[in-house]
Here is the input.
Amino acid sequence: MRADFRSRLLAGEPLIGAWVKTPSHIVAEVLGLTALDCVCLDAEHAPFDRAAIDTSLAALRAASMPGLVRLPHASSEHVLNALDCGATGVVAPHIRSVDEARALAQMSRYGPGGRGYAGSSRAAGYTTTSMSENLQRGNDNTAVIAQIEDLEALDAIHDIAAVEGIDCLFIGRIDLTVALGASTPTQDAVVEAVERICAAASQAHRRIGMFVSDLAEIPKWRALGASLFILKSDHTFILEGAKVLRSAFDQLSGKTA
Here is the structure.
């Protein structure tokens, strides 16, 4: 695996990843060959079942690419499945309260009431490593990322940010846009909400992650503490690549509109 993702995240290094929306180990394998810092399987908004998560994470691990999983929802069975299959970390959607943040932190790591242990999983090396090593590695290397995208979360943001065991607050700006009744993510109310989350995370010494559709915004959010950016997706890469090819072909072939 490349230099430990969680250590880099906690150190505040600027990190860039991309979403995978196609439940295919081949897509994951191809993106594993790139210079991205991580790849996130979007099991919330794309049709990933357990088998697709398993094979996609196997492909990412084979390429030494950190693999995150955005869960369908923040429940112990989804966290356990992703981590046992070898995920580097989880992105849990719709964390709205302190209780939900605490539950996420607990279910993502070993300990009383926490993640269930199995030495036969990919994460544990299929019984080839010791229990003590697996427990230590799991707790040290698992990145726990809470997605903030609801009005309830805004009301409790300082308390959520203070929860031990949450490594990063990932701002779901599009859902915030919908929740705030805005029409675009650049409206003042949305930008102010994102700034408010950034301030609370920085005050609590939590890392900040986000998606932005306009890359020109990155310097602004970097200045406010954001360091993890998960941008674009396999779908976007395909569409943009086809558009570039079409344009280049039309120019060279002399085709006119």
Observations:
- The beta strands are 15-20, 38-42, 67-70, 89-92, 143-148, 168-171, 207-210, 226-233.
- The chain has a mean pLDDT of 96.
